[in-house]
């Protein structure tokens, strides 16, 4: 009696586990592997795209999402996490999909406009209400006694943008003196008590656990913290100089081909560039690239003096090699 | 005769109770009790209470909504699937290993014992990475798996494998000392009387160790459902597909959805409480059996 009950229970479990697989066969499932702070953006966007695609083709698309530090996510795709589209924090991580995984062509970034970045962002400083430590610019972050929160550049895309923004500021301040720039960034890193693996982890450390005086954050993440987590608890400080962050998107050709989802995956990314897609991005505090939408949300985004990675660092490949690869400036500075 | 013995014994007990060696000054007793209780309160009751208050802070409706959310349900299902596969396999393995180690002499026995402890010794992250190295598409069997369209990591099989790896010592570790203490006299007696191998296993060995076995299974199950590190590495974190309960808690927390995160966490806390209750019950049973044995 007991044995047969057990058998039924096991069978029931097995059936309930098998059922959704057969049911979803006629629906389309896309997997979007993304970086950390885009959770809210893609939650909204996926719902909008499903609706749009259903109306256009009659097919039901379910977009599954996976989020984490950008470098970590790229690594997972290379190891076999079969994403149809990758929407990561920076071009270098997407480059890896070509170099280490041979999953996409080398010229992937030319396939969509604006360097395949449908939205952009930048790095700002988030401080506690009233700015008790009087933080105005990057200069203030190296002062003794200031606790700075930023994630680990080895795993987080946001952290790499943070690091490069600080580097660019110091470079300008010291007129390109490399030793002094390094010393400046080193002092800044000395003020960092915890290096989380992703941008979201850092935001939680700063906002929820109350650690640190200033958070180096994606602009969208800073807005989210300020407007939706602790209304009136935080202030955004726009530094005198920051970096134009271009988080690129791509179809992961090899996996999409295998799933037979190339067309939907491409349409999914194209939809990011449409007016609807751009509106959703702007509402989630990403800077839209489409002129008309950018104008509409102009007042939302402060004017910042933005440098470009290609101009200041010679592109991501070079920046990664100089600063974040093993033995790069980050290792040299951080291990001291 | 026996009456005098009893009186003698009780007067001896009284002497022991009153002797200085066993009765500390009152303040030390109170101090020790206070320290123990404060520790318990700080590190056990407060966090546990915090989980449940946070979970219910936005009302019972929010709590239920968080638990019946499709992603949460799929996490619960996946967690049960992983446990349903890992626990029976580890049960069989644990009994076989304990049997081999305690009843037979063979070369390499101490190596086997050490290997069984390996999952306790290595970090769960490494346990996860091992499977990425073996089954990832850049790994040893990567291209073979891709050619045959088999997914191991970032899918359910990988999660099950990682769970089995981190939980496999529990049953064997519970059984080995128990079976060593019991020795092989009863089995030898059974053999002399003409019992077959299976009869010895079912009628002598297993009944002797049943409580230890059950305890091992409960621990295995608790760890299987609660495992975070190893599973996190091989999961891929696809919500609604490859998230187990602990991973789902992390995701909700990272999405500032604290009430839901704690609601799901409270399920895991409940699991821990049930485990504790079962453990207490088993210990009570074992103690009762021991007393019966002695009086018999």
Description:
- The complex is a heterodimer of chains A (336) and B (296).
- Chain A has 336 residues and is an alpha/beta fold.
- Chain A folds into 2 domains: 2-117 and 247-273, Periplasmic binding protein-like II (D-Maltodextrin-Binding Protein, domain 2), CATH 3.40.190.10; 120-245 and 304-334, 3-Layer(aba) Sandwich (D-Maltodextrin-Binding Protein, domain 2), CATH 3.40.190.10.
- Chain A has 15 helices and 11 strands.
- In chain A, helix 2 links the parallel strand 1 and strand 2 (61-67).
- The relative contact order of chain A is 0.16.
- Chain B has 296 residues and is mainly alpha-helical.
- Chain B has 2 domains: 1-56, no CATH class; 59-295, MetI-like fold (Orthogonal Bundle).
- Chain B contains 14 helices and no strands.
- Chain B has helices spanning 2-18, 26-56, 60-68, 70-103, 109-121, 124-135, 142-147, 156-167, 169-182, 185-192, 197-226, 229-235, 245-254, 258-295.
- The longest helix of chain B has 38 residues, at 258-295.
- Chain B is flat.
- The two termini of chain B are 21 Å apart.
- At the A-B interface, helix 1, strand 2 and helix 7 of A face helix 4 and helix 13 of B.
- Chain B: The chain crosses the membrane at residues 27-52, 72-99, 111-140, 152-172, 213-238, 258-278.
